[in-house]
Amino acid sequence: MKYGELIIEKKEFELLRQIISMSQNYRDKSYRISIEKLLTEMARAKVVSNAKMPNDVVRLNSVVAFSLPGNLQRNYRLVTPEMSNLKENRISILAPMGLALFGYAKGDEVEWQFPGGTNKIKIMDVIQHPQTIKKSAS
Q1: Residue 108 has what pLDDT?
Q2: Helices 10-22 and 29-44 meet at what angle, rounded to 10?
Q3: What is the pTM assigned to this prediction?
């Protein structure tokens, strides 16, 4: 792990806690496992202001290029559940893949439980949406 711990911007941390609290009724086992793992990681995460957030960390609205076993490569923009649209390469923060990527940085390898089993993801690049990286006095 590039920074030694998950790094989350404080407003996104609160938003994610709200989203997760509203999603506790998911019956899908992989979603429940992913949410439980993210909650565990969030408890240990470093929460920082927007001004101190590294630009290479995956956050809401980030476009993430990553590779999967079998030399598969994908690019997704991480969004809130209501904005998710796989045809437009926008993946929900609550999807197992979104949960697996959130808070990690370019170069990190993440092992995560997916519906088809455990997989390892390598984050190749992180591009911040201009709205995301707007630095404020938070």
Answers
A1: 96
A2: 150
A3: 0.83
97: left (phi over 0), alpha (psi -120 to 50) or beta: alpha
- Residues with pLDDT less than 50, the chain: 133-138
Q: Count of residues for the chain?
A: 138
Q: Does domain 7-130 have CATH number 3.10.50.30?
A: yes
Helix, strand, or coil (residue 50)? helix
pLDDT at 91: 94
Q: What are 54's two structure tokens?
A: 């590294």
Q: Where are the domains of the chain?
A: 7-130
pLDDT for 23 equals 66
Instruction: Tell me which residue of 46, 38, 45, 41 sits closest to 21, measured CA to CA.
Output: 38
pLDDT in tens, 118-130: 889 999 999 998 7
Tokens of 4: 């030694």
The tokens for 36 are 């439980």
DSSP for 115-132 reads TTEEEEEEEEEEE--HHH
Confirm if 30 and 114 have CB atoms less than 8 A apart.
yes
Residue type for 83, please?
M
Q: How far is CA 134 from CA 16, 61, 72, 129, 131, in A?
A: 19, 12, 32, 9, 6
